[in-house]
Amino acid sequence: xxxxxxxxxxxxxxxxxxxxxxxxxxxxxEKLGNPQDKIRAISVVGTNGKQSTINALFAILKESKxxxxxxxxxxxxxxxxxxxxxxKELEDEKLSHLFEEIEKINDNQQxxxxxxxxxxxxxxxxxxxxNVNLIEAGLFHRFDAxxxxxxxxxxxxxxxxxxxxxxxxxxxxxxxxIVFEKTSxxxxxxxxxxxxxxxxxxxxxxxxxxxxxxxxxxxxxDFNYSIGExxxxxYEDKFGSxxxxxxxxxxxxxxxxxxxxxxxxxxxxxxxKDEDIKNGITNIKSIARxxxxxxxxxxxxxxxxxxxLDGSHNEDGSRxxxxxxxxxxxxxxVIIGMMANKDHEKYISYFKDISSLTTIxxxxxxxxxxGEKLKEKFKNFSNVQYKKSIREAIESIQLKxxxxxxxxxxxxxxxxxxxxx
Length: 421
What we know:
- This protein has 14 helices and 17 strands.
- 34% of the residues lie in helices and 17% in strands.
- Helix 4 crosses helix 5.
């Protein structure tokens, strides 16, 4: 309760949820002694795959006994998820103390919620100067609060696609502009570029970072993977090839993220052994990214039927989700809730051969589109219906043996599901 009260206060320090600028975060961090200048970081930017790539990095680094701090957003169930120090999630009491300390130093100055959360992370991370920090960039990157580092170990560019277009002028809602916002201010160190969804995007990234003097590694030019038989895949880069077990994650797109993580760690030469990679990728923790729900109150409603939870919410996320779904020979039922600022029609266009589609409201999210309006947007689906809640939606679907249920469309919806389950 104490932690939530502090969070509520921090959310009121600025009238806007997002206000793209680096001035406020720089001013606060200067008061804090510029803690961001005292850490070793791997920055992760892009549209999709950031969390999965960080999860793979974290799993491998832990296996090699390298201590990590991790900063990600948004959180799925509780705000503590954003704050991992020395490989452990910060407990409520310590997080409350951290927030109060930075709140006092900020002295009621105007600052966005994400900016002050980021300052809190940098302040705490500086207490662990030898740790590797895995830092996920938020909206775009150029004016993101995480983009105040003067140096880092590496920058990873995950898959870039169109998302958050409402923050760009109508005439600038292009992949070129998004690539510019995400990559034009990358630091001079190492840049590792993951597999992109088109050659156009890759070429755009190359053009944007052409003058950056970093060592650059591109997927399919400097590292790649191929799927073998008998639950193995093969990774290859200039250091040689690795025969690796398939990870404990669903979807081939995860191999793209994992390969990028491997390429980064091998490039940094920080003592990662082949065995650390092999063991690490089979112990990756991932929430709401093609998560196979095995148990819980809501899972019990469908008994032996399989339930997948996926927080994808843009067209590239929908594409990779449906590439996986197309590999499954079963009837698929989809429950979906989305935020209002997403391209709903584009997202749903990737879904093929769906047995039923149920739209729902996302509770406690004023920026979500109502399930009823979402149903109207999906009226081309002959089997679409609206239900108010997740439970009502699940109970309304007539599942047959071996049918699959997928809940998707939003990380906020995923968090709601996990809390209820």
